[in-house]
Write a structure and sequence with these properties.
By secondary structure, the chain is an alpha/beta fold. It has a single domain, classed as Beta-carbonic Anhydrase, Chain A, CATH 3.40.1050.10. It is about 50% helix and about 10% strand. The protein contains eleven helices and five strands. Strands 2-1-3-4-5 form a five-stranded mixed sheet, with helices on both faces. Helix 4 (about 85-90) links the parallel strand 1 (about 75-80) and strand 2. The termini are far apart. The model is unreliable at about 5-25 and about 260-270 (pLDDT under 50).
Length: about 270
């Protein structure tokens, strides 16, 4: 009996100790490829009408109030403010799964790049998706204006969408004589590449994380009519990063307050930079 009691105490002590370890250790974050695969599988479920709506119950809400999002979020997504692009739904994700930045035209300017840096360096997400979408109103407006069919805009909208201009100009130059219906889908994709280019130019921190293999950056286009995400060529991201790394105008100092080499603002970048 004494031996049984001693064994029982040891077993209970081991269970208690393992329980403490479980409470103190954050969940294992996926690597970049695993995180991307989770997004792809989530979108497949969404398209098929098989969404699981994970991490949306009261237990997850309680958990969010008690734990650090950096221990859970597995993707940063910058996308358009368009109401047809509900990020968590299209990736079948829930609370503390995705760090989302939304802005008209999914542009990467100062505020958006700062938010991305926070998502990658502080929320510790291993993947960044720059997500454009079909029928994008911002890209459409800039394209129409470039073709001479623009209209008056409220005073704060032109500075918002001027980051899109290089993508539209490049698309027009590569497709001379094409009409708006042909140009706009191409410009939407080119705008994703422009956003990635602008991000790499202005964010040494992001470049460092990608070069170290800690973060994967990928472009994608969401089809508002089908729910399907088209994943763009990953090699194009590597090509853009390589060109930026050799560009003397890229930002150099990753941390605020350090010596900085001035980088060009997006409105001064040429359409052929990438």
């Amino acid at each position: 009996m004494k031996r049984l009691n001693t064994l029982f105490v040891h077993v209970m002590a081991a269970i208690f100790f393992l329980g403490l370890l479980g409470c103190s250790s954050p969940p294992q974050k996926p690597g970049p490829d695993q995180a991307l695969n989770r997004l792809k599988l989530g979108n497949d479920r969404f398209v098929k009408g098989e969404s699981r709506f994970p991490h949306t119950d009261s237990a997850r809400i309680k958990q969010a109030g008690e734990e650090n999002q950096g221990d859970h979020a597995f993707a940063t997504v910058i996308t358009c403010s368009d109401s047809r692009v509900p990020v968590e739904l299209i990736f079948d994700a829930g609370i503390m799964d995705t760090f989302v930045i939304r802005v008209a035209g999914n542009v990467c300017d100062t505020d958006e790049i700062g938010s991305i840096e926070y998502g990658l360096a502080h929320v510790n997400t291993p993947v960044l998706v720059v997500l454009g979408h079909t029928q994008c109103g911002a890209v459409t407006a800039v394209t129409q204006a470039a073709l001479g069919n623009g209209h008056a805009l409220e005073r704060n909208i032109p500075p918002l969408v001027d980051n899109i201009a290089p993508a539209v100009e490049r698309t027009i130059s590569l497709n001379p004589g094409a009409d708006a219906g042909h140009l706009i889908p191409l410009a939407i994709q080119e705008n994703v590449w422009t956003g990635i280019h602008d991000l790499f130019m202005e964010s040494p921190a992001t470049r460092n994380l990608v070069n170290a293999g800690k973060v994967k950056v990928i472009g994608a286009i969401y089809d508002v009519g089908t729910g399907r995400v088209e994943w763009l060529d990953e090699s194009k991201v590597s090509e853009i990063l390589t060109k930026v790394e050799s560009n003397p105008d890229r930002a150099i100092e990753p941390m605020a307050g350090g010596p900085e080499k001035e980088a060009p603002h997006a409105e001064n970048a040429t359409a052929t930079d990438h």
